[in-house]
Write a structure and sequence with these properties.
Structural class: alpha/beta
Mean pLDDT: 81
Order of helices and strands: HEEHEHEHEHEEEHHEEEEEEHHE
Strand content: 15-25%
Helix content: 25-40%
Distance between the termini: 60 Å
Largest sheet: 5 strands, parallel
């Protein structure tokens, strides 16, 4: 938020309508050089620091201990300059000054070490539209969007000054009511307000981008198409990237018109946004091909072609597990492309892994590879869990030992014995794996659970 301006700043006729008396005999901008006691009072004020970088905000780092403030005065009256060399910052150091008599000179002098611009609103502006009294200010704001700007206007022209602030200036001053102390403080406050406004704008822009990214990523997560199926579905997803919603893991589940339920889970090597995008492409391709009637080796061969065309690097590959469950729910076809075998749990026997002897290569590794489809018996009542390697590769404690598939099977057996099912089972599994790892997992984790209860 912008830093509030102390009441004692009291710009004459701008905020309180009272002008500060100036010593007799001085010109409008050469009067009011700060006295020793005034400078001492100024030193008591908080030091203004500007930490913005050249990419935005005020363009130069300012600390009272290391860097002087620099002012660019754009004023066609040569008698206006003598007050500026005597201006002091909050530490009592001189505020450096550059003077430009027109906008052409100002553009040449406007380098990154300038912190504030003091602009005479009466200056002519190129291409000035009829009746636009702030054309010169608009031109300067376009020329120097990262700099603090103080507008200088005639005494009593508060309406024009206020309009200048609405257009983009940090403050306005009356030229014939200025003194050195007032101008020094106005410069410092303008620099700080510009820095604060820029930081606030960047924060708002960052939040907006984060919200847009979140909406996009949520929209890319799958919605299972299981209408008409008696199977229950649950899923758990945790991307490895910090503050992301989508990782390189992907999954989907659809029911085709013949009553077959098709489920898939996969993992693109890597953890960045490119891998996440490729995972989404593979998932969408899988859904389209499945609904078109492809399955088994024909489906995986086509997905490998998609991967080869869409990947940015020939080293990128993806593991995949597909399951097609018959309409009666008692048997299924299983294809594994370098992926861990699913876990099946039934009331009459402990949870175990499905066979993985015919596991084919990951997609993208071997041109012309084949992926055999295995038939597995499921039974009348069962729970089938598909998962990515993020669930089994977390460490156990501080050593190098990992959970592994055997450790995962034992964990699921115990949680099933505790009566956990569906979403509760998946939540408990992912949380326990994270706790065993001693903190957040670095790899993406996706888990899908399908249940058949007669």
């Amino acid at each position: 938020m912008p830093v509030p301006v102390p009441r004692q700043r009291a710009i004459p006729a701008v905020e309180c309508g009272q002008a500060q008396a100036a010593p007799a005999g001085g010109g409008p901008l050469t009067e009011g050089i700060p006295r020793t006691d005034d400078r001492t009072d100024d030193r008591k004020e908080a030091t203004v620091e500007n930490n913005a970088t050249p990419g935005g905000g005020v363009p130069h780092d300012v600390t009272a201990a290391h860097t002087n403030l620099t002012l660019l005065l754009i004023e066609d009256d040569p008698t206006a300059a003598p007050i500026v060399p005597d201006l002091l910052d909050s530490a009592g150091k001189p505020i450096r000054m550059r003077t430009a008599r027109n906008l052409t000179e100002a553009e040449r002098l406007l380098t990154d070490d300038v912190h504030c611009i003091l602009l005479d609103l009466a200056l002519p502006a190129p291409g000035r539209a009829a009746g636009d009294e702030l054309a010169v200010l608009r031109h300067v704001l376009e020329l120097a969007p990262r700099h603090a700007v103080l507008a200088l206007t005639a005494s009593g022209d508060a309406e024009r000054g206020a309009e200048a602030v609405r257009v983009g200036a940090q403050d306005y001053l009356f030229r014939d009511e200025l003194d050195g102390r007032l101008l020094s403080r106005a410069i410092r406050y303008a620099v700080e307000r510009k820095r604060s406004d820029t930081a606030e704008r960047r924060l708002a822009e960052g939040k907006l981008r984060a919200q847009e990214n979140a909406r996009l990523e949520r929209g890319l997560l799958p919605t299972p198409l299981l209408e008409g199926s008696p199977l229950r579905f649950a899923a758990r997803y945790r991307p490895g990237r910090s503050r992301a919603l989508l990782g390189g893991d992907f999954y989907d589940t659809v029911r085709t018109p013949d009553g077959t339920v098709h489920a898939m889970i996969g993992d693109v090597c890597g953890h960045g946004p490119d891998e996440a995008a490729l995972g989404v492409e593979l998932r969408i391709a899988w859904r389209a091909l499945t609904l078109a009637g492809l399955c088994g080796d024909q489906l995986l061969s086509t997905l490998q072609q998609v991967l080869e065309h869409e990947r940015d690097d020939d080293e990128i590959f993806a593991t995949l597990c597909t399951v097609d469950i018959a309409p009666d729910g008692r048997r299924a076809g299983l294809c594994l492309a370098g992926h861990p075998a699913p876990l099946i749990a039934r009331p009459d026997r402990p949870a175990r892994l499905l066979p993985y002897d015919n596991n084919g290569p990951a997609l993208g590794l071997l041109p012309g590879a084949r992926w055999p489809r295995m038939q597995v018996e499921l039974g009348a009542e069962w729970s089938l869990m598909l998962y990515t390697d993020g669930l089994i590769e977390g460490r156990i404690g501080e050593g190098r030992e990992r959970l592994g598939q055997d450790g995962m099977v034992e964990m699921i057996r115990r949680q099933l014995a505790d009566g956990l099912t569906g979403e509760d089972l998946l939540r408990a599994a992912v949380n326990e794996v994270r706790d065993l790892n001693g903190g957040e997992l670095t790899d993406d984790v996706a888990v899908v659970l399908l249940d058949r209860v007669p």
